[in-house]
Amino acid sequence: MSSYITVVYHHMGKMARDSNMNLVYEGGEKTFFDFVNPEKFSWVQMKDLFKGLGYREYNYMYWLDEDLGFNGDGLNMITGDLAVLRMCEWAVSHDNSVNVYFDHKVDKAVEFVDLVEEDDDHVNTQLQTNHASTQVTPKKKRIKMRANRTGSPMRKPINRKAKNLGQAFEDLLDKLAELEHY
């Protein structure tokens, strides 16, 4: 493999069946990544490019072997570097381009809506709904909507019983001291 490839990400859509029960990717956007070196491209880089589009996670990532198509065995799940290597080898032998499809949650985008009346009672009001939080911005008096997001599991404290990091560190030192006595 010596030439560069183009990786096309299909995102913000979803896998579905059409009226003939054929598998299709409905809606969404395409993002092109040109000049990808297939010899150095990795699964970690693929995930980082996806996160660079503003997403936090995905359910599945597939590359499409266009010779077999959606309804044959053309969708190949990407679960590691070996799958990325196979994808790159296929792309080099097929016009130096490959389509990658993501199955992921789509968060509601932030929307701004102008208020009809400018009543100071509504300023800094925050409403909580099932899907989004809404607040009125104080200066331009617009409604700002944001999707509710769940916290990252990586942001949980080390020791849930500890009140702060110092307490967690002291607990860890105590456990190490206990182990040294054995």
Automatic annotation (TrEMBL):
Domain of life of the native organism: Eukaryota
InterPro entries for this protein: PB1-like_dom_pln
Residue intervals of the PB1-like domain: 1-104
Pfam families: PB1-like (PF26130)
UniProt name for this protein: PB1-like domain-containing protein
